[in-house]
Amino acid sequence: MNKLAILAVAGALAAPAAAQDGYYQIKPGDVLNVSVLEDPNLSSQVLVRPDGRISMPIAGSVMAKGNSPERLEAILRSRLAQGFELTPTVTVSVAQVALATAEQLAEEEVVINTYFLMGQVARPGPVAVEDPLTLLQALALVGGPGPFADGEKIQVRRRGEDGIEELLFFDYSLVEDGMPVTDIELQDKDLIFVPERGLF
């Protein structure tokens, strides 16, 4: 094998799993089943250390983090080949996925804001979104005030931690007339009530 071929093989074995889109990437804390068909004594269950490596006889310390199980199989085959006349058959599977730490869960936690729209709106009910909304945005999401709504007396009812309810009013007719208005920044659990206008 010429030098170029050797470099190509080495580069392929060292390629990180980041380039293997769609494949599971091994991470610290994972437990792997490593099976060597030709020598069961080498088969073992190994823990991926915090530094991302695993250790095996003959193969030594091998970087597992960031590689897919298939890529790690290729790396181990190459490392173990020195102890066999023929390239060994190596199988790697994930026996247990690492549990996320509290810090990781906190980073991944998605905060959901829920608003409740009642009364004369096209689609009454709760609205749950990740990003906070304004009153006008929430009304737009449910189709706006209904045909019998009293747009001049829209209410935002907000209950504080002390249990006292705060009442805010909004005149939607100004929006319909193209007048400048100050939108209301909603808070989680706000209730928006659009009353029905009087018939006379």
Overview of this structure, please?
By secondary structure, this protein is of the alpha+beta class. The protein is built from 5 helices and 10 strands. It has helices spanning 3-14, 69-80, 102-108, 135-141, 172-176; strands at 31-36, 44-47, 53-56, 60-63, 90-96, 113-119, 125-129, 154-159, 165-170, 191-194. The strands form 3 sheets. A 5-stranded mixed beta sheet has the order 7-6-10-8-9, covered by helices on one side. Strands 2-1-5 form a 3-stranded antiparallel beta sheet. The relative contact order is 0.13.
Give a short overview:
By secondary structure, the chain is of the alpha+beta class.
Structural class of the secondary structure composition?
Answer: alpha+beta
Number of helical elements = 5
Please tell me the overall pLDDT: 82
What's the total number of strands? 10
Which range does the strand content fall in? 25-35%
Question: Main sheet?
Answer: 5 strands, mixed
SSE topology string: HEEEEHEHEEHEEHE
Distance between the termini: 95 Å
Q: Looking at the chains present, what oligomeric state does this protein adopt? A: single chain
